[in-house]
Amino acid sequence: MKQTDPIRALTAALLGLASLSAPSAADALTELGGAHFSPSAPLVPGVEALLPGAGDIGAYSADLWHVVYVKDEVVFLLMEDGAGGWSDPEPVTTEEAVSPANAQIGAASGFVHVVWEDDRTGQTEVWTRKWDGVAWSDEECLSPGGAASRAPVLSSGFGAFIVWEDGEVGARDLAGRYAGSSGTWGGVEAVAAGFGDAHTAGISNEQSDVFLFAWTDTRNGTEEVFYRRRVNGGVYGSPRVIEAVGPARNPDISRRQIGGDSVSYVTLVTYEVDEASATEVWASLLGSDEYVVESLRISAEDGVDSFAPNLAGFGLFSYYLIESHSPNWYVTWTDAGVSGAIHLLALLTTSMNALTAEFANAGLATSRISEGYDSPRTKLAAFWIQDDGDGPALWAQFGSKISCVYLEVGAPNSVIATPSGTHANTMILRNSCGGTSGAADSARVEITPSVRDGLIWAPGHPIPPYTLPVDPDTGEMPIYLAAGGCVEAPGLYVKLSGVVVLGYDGVRSPDVNGDCLVDESDRAYVEARLGGSDYCADLDGSNLVDGLDLAFVDATMGEMCLEPADAPDPVVDVASGLSLRVAPNPAVARVRITVESGSRSGHVDGALGGAEQGGGAVNSVQADIVDVAGRRVRTLVVDAPATSGGLEWDLRDDGGRGVPSGLYWVRVVSGGSVAKRAVSVVR
Fold first, then answer.
1. What is the pLDDT of residues 281-314, one digit of tens each?
2. Which of the four pLDDT bands, split at 50, 70 and 90, describes residue 585?
3. Which helix (H) or strand (E) holds 151?
């Protein structure tokens, strides 16, 4: 049941959390695992049931909670009014609906989607409507076909996906549909089909239109929990089974982001397992490769049945940092017995530390828990059915997980490298729980090799990784980069306590061509792209090349890596002893590449093709032309003896096609030495 996974080593380095103990009974209603809850209270009277299932009945949208429920055979939407109260219930279903049930809600791309079961056609089908903040769309059937469809489960985030049971009991498949930014549902997709009785699904969305599904399946002759992944464009991975100590069913799933040297994702699956003495609730952690890393029982082994787990999760985000520095999940489930107690458990971090508390005596009812985001806090809402003597009602408890650090990035909004070394980037690490003071003493700046190697760095200037101080009063931290060139690939990160709190898409400089001098060629590159969105010319990261970008070049015009008197010949690669010149730069029709051997001091001793080379013969040369994404587009080779004095690139790739405008790297290998220069191609 256990497998090794690289993410275990990563999380062990990241977390370093102090040991945690369960809160006292008096605190159980207000604080659990860093989450702070208001007292529970009845929300809607007369609601009698929450059907088992992993879907949410609460969604956080436009900074307000939206709650959906079924009462008197009508699906209603209840919304916060923004003033500490609730709006009047809004009917979602029309009079055409018959016996609606199992209502679910999700928010994505500015829409609130509501789905439910409906018998209006004589058999159960899945229906939906969406709310855009102003009006409802028409009712729409999502499950056309000849078989009954039931138990819809909805997940939303970067998009929305609904999955439902399709077919009769004992021969069910799982089908689903995806809605992107337009809110329009695509065609029906087979999520789990043709293998057995697939039912009681859970679903999670955390990254673009990547979704993970978990469900109960009998394909192997007994109930087991399977899971699989749907990636961008609707491509599905192979189903995988979670090994359990007995029959397993009723899963929920949550995929969350974790920070480290790079951004990755981990997943938690909760489910019921039939053990020898009782049914218990278990959890399995899936690593970055989506194989099970660890499984453990999370309900008490007390001989009392525990069932209907429901899961809410939080991860790391680029613009604020959750206190625990790692993903954490909150799970509810119901214990059978006299009280029928509902439990809330905080499963903190990928080290699987757990806190648990009883938070409601609610009869034999199931519970739901939902999450939302409201920087610098993350929102939680728990729902259940409770009868306190006045009849059954939908109860709720609302809370938040406080995140005391949030980040601001000063203009310009991208990372700017300047040849002179003056900083053009200010990040603010501010303690949002305690005013404007700094939230850390220092932060670490790290850079990936692809970005580091794609820039021309000022000689003698420190290159990340390094640690910079944070102003204790303002929280400001400048980022200094003395470099030239442009790399669009992600790879510059800022860390607190070993965790990535901000990742930059790339690095750009007013020295666009990376020759360690801001000059007219750099200005011409930006000016030629006014009105467009060229990454390298869009210096302020506004997605528009405009006068501000030109002004940035003008303000740094003439800046060099070092003063000429102090700097070695900038065309000599001091590490390799090779001198590499490319001209003209920017290039319109062709580029002449001249290579010479030199000493480490920068003195040029001989020319390409010469008989006596002094500092070293350059008798065989290979030049690779590489684009900013690191792809090789052309290879040029001259074998000894080379008498042409250099190489020539006609601005075409190896297939004879002209390369598009942009920044390219000329990388020369000769005699075990390597040198590179940037060249800007202008069409």
1. 999 999 878 899 889 999 988 899 999 999 998 7
2. low
3. strand 149-156
**Mean pLDDT in residue range 538-565:** 80
CB 241 within 8 A of CB 223: no
CB-based contacts of 295-300 (< 8 A; 24+ apart in sequence)? 295/1, 295/2, 295/242, 295/243, 295/244, 296/352, 297/273, 298/270, 298/331, 298/345, 298/347, 298/354, 298/356, 299/333, 299/335, 299/343
Neighbours of 262 (CB within 10 A): 14
Q: Which two tokens stand for residue 108?
A: 């994505």
β-pairing, 415-416 with 507-508?
A: parallel
Confidence grade of residue 14 (pLDDT, cut at 50, 70, 90): very low
pTM: 0.65
| Amino acid identity at 53 | G
pLDDT score for 24: 30
**If pLDDT is split at 50, 70 and 90, which confidence band does 641 have?**
very low
In angstroms, rounded to a whole number, what is the distance separating the alpha carbons of residues 37 and 587?
63
Tokens, residue 484: 């030239």
Q: Using omega within 30 degrees of 0 as the cis cutoff, is the peptide bond preceding 465 cis?
A: yes
State the DSSP H helix or E strand holding residue 450, giving kind and residue range, or none if neither.
helix 449-453
Residue 291 structure tokens: 């194989």
pLDDT tens digits along 602-623 = 222 222 322 233 334 445 678 8
* Chain centre distance of CA 294: 23
The CA-CA-CA angle for residues 467, 468, 470, to 5°, reads 135
First to last CA, the chain: 58
The secondary structure of 581-629 as a DSSP string is EEESSSBSS-EEEEEEEE-TTS-EEEETT-S--TT-----EEEEEEETT
The radius of gyration computed from the CA coordinates of the chain, to the nearest angstrom, equals 30
